[in-house]
């Protein structure tokens, strides 16, 4: 048999999903170069892109009759002009503002034809003020400096016009890697990513600028997808969840979790972590708390076992309790360093979920202690905790930062935020695509700690004693997604101010039940 061609070989080797992959501008440029080298004309690709944008635009903006196009000099501007041509042929009113006259040849051809069709070309961007929709076709990927004149003035006017703005590929002025802006940026109401998602669109810094996100597929062959790893959108979380228990299961086969949390000043943190762990479906929950909190725990979590301590905290030796995982950190207060030292000595045989005060203690001790003690862990820092844990890692690119932190610590890193990033030491990286500002409340993270801890204990009980980084990563992904989706549902019922952590912890099982009923691969948020 003949040897398979290079495209066939790469098709087999490549496992990236175009619907979820978040590529860099360099990866996207290499992809386009391979498409062109294989015989696809640049003009043909521009046609495919423009027609796809036009079709989607008619769905999203059916009432728009007058459309203004802010057109750059390169191929992003050419894409906009192709869309303008189709709009003009569909009897829409089209106005075009060309920022500069020195267009690339293909873009110039489309501009000339659009003029011939009768579209109006205007000298001043303010002449677009009577439009129903603006199309931002100024700059695509690869921008590496702040916008100058006339672009900056056009962006300022468009943002202040009150007219909805559709950006092609990404809002002009957005850093396609970090999601930060180059001085100024189009504030889009919709962004149509062309071909593959650009990673900057899904960075937390991009949220004020991108609006509702949609990806338009223009038929990318699998053999040109990036061969190297890329972060992924967590659009289908179900493979990350532990399997449902069999009918003949019992509590000991559903896992046992130890939650080490709470102090006199932060008593509620232990309760909230307990609520999260209870919602996970884990078979047994034991809370190790100061003795004075025992009554509170029993009154709010009557099914939980309580291991109280007094004075210097001490924990039972690992061999005496068959725990599958330990979640440590919420509300520990001043006891955090002593507790973590005790755990490091005696509890290295099971996976950890580390949050809050335990992260602060770990930052004081050095994150390298985890690998020195042979501990597999999930770290769940917010940005401030991340900076303390990993002072040498710049957090501007949150995906890259989480990946570097995971490699440095040997742990799964959950960098929390509006776009939570989950990364493993092996290089995998997932981005949770949807969240809600309702989670920006003290205690929400404590619920997440207990939830992920319970999922880890359940999974490890199902697997026996063997549990690797891949399983820890899956538990973190499942917990982050479930936690966010529950908050979104609860906000829909109670409003943003009604998603307090206690209600969230109680609501998690109901949310998951609803999500399972609707269990079909859903659209990207806003699609």
What does it look like?
- With 527 residues, this protein is an alpha/beta fold.
- It is 39% helix and 15% strand.
- The protein has 17 helices and 19 strands.
- A 10-stranded mixed β-sheet has the order 10-19-18-17-16-15-14-11-12-13, with helices on both faces.
- Helix 8 packs across helix 15 (444-463), helix 8 runs parallel beside helix 17 and helix 16 crosses helix 17.
- The longest helix has 26 residues, at 469-494.
- The protein is elongated.
- The protein starts with 5 loop residues before the first helix and ends in a 10-residue tail after the last helix.
- Residues 1-14 and 522-527 have low confidence and may be disordered.
Could you estimate the helical fraction of the residues in percent? 25-40%
Count of individual beta strands: 19
Spans of 5+ residues with little confidence (pLDDT < 50)?
Answer: 1-14, 522-527
Please compute the radius of gyration using only Cα atoms: 26 Å
Identify the notable features of this structure and list them briefly.
single chain, 527 residues, alpha/beta, seven-stranded parallel sheet, 17 helices, disordered N terminus
List the helices and strands and how they pair.
Elements: H1 6-13, E1 22-23, H2 25-37, H3 42-60, E2 66-71, H4 75-89, E3 93-98, H5 105-116, E4 120-122, E5 133-137, H6 151-160, E6 165-168, E7 190-194, E8 197-198, H7 207-210, E9 212-216, E10 232-233, E11 256-260, H8 267-279, E12 284-290, H9 294-300, E13 305-309, E14 325-328, H10 336-346, E15 352-354, H11 356-365, H12 369-372, E16 377-379, H13 383-389, H14 398-409, E17 412-415, E18 421-423, E19 429-431, H15 444-463, H16 469-494, H17 501-517
Parallel strand pairs: 1-8, 2-3, 2-5, 3-4, 5-6, 6-7, 7-9, 10-19, 11-12, 11-14, 12-13, 14-15, 15-16, 16-17
Antiparallel strand pairs: 17-18, 18-19
